[in-house]
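Hi C.,

You asked whether I'd gotten around to modeling the 48-residue construct. I have! Everything is below, sequence then structure, no commentary in between.
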Amino acid sequence: MKTKISITVDQITLEKILIHVDKGRFRNTSHAFEFAVRKVLQEAGELK
């Protein structure tokens, strides 16, 4: 189950993420942020 949240990011970060979304690396901005957070958590040993 997914939970909807709201976040605030600076304009440059959003623009860079949208470039990756437009190129098809991510389905949408939510997918990009979830990917990034999971990567950080995996590197911290909190997810497998």
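If it helps when you're writing up: Residues 1-48 form one domain.

Thanks,
B.
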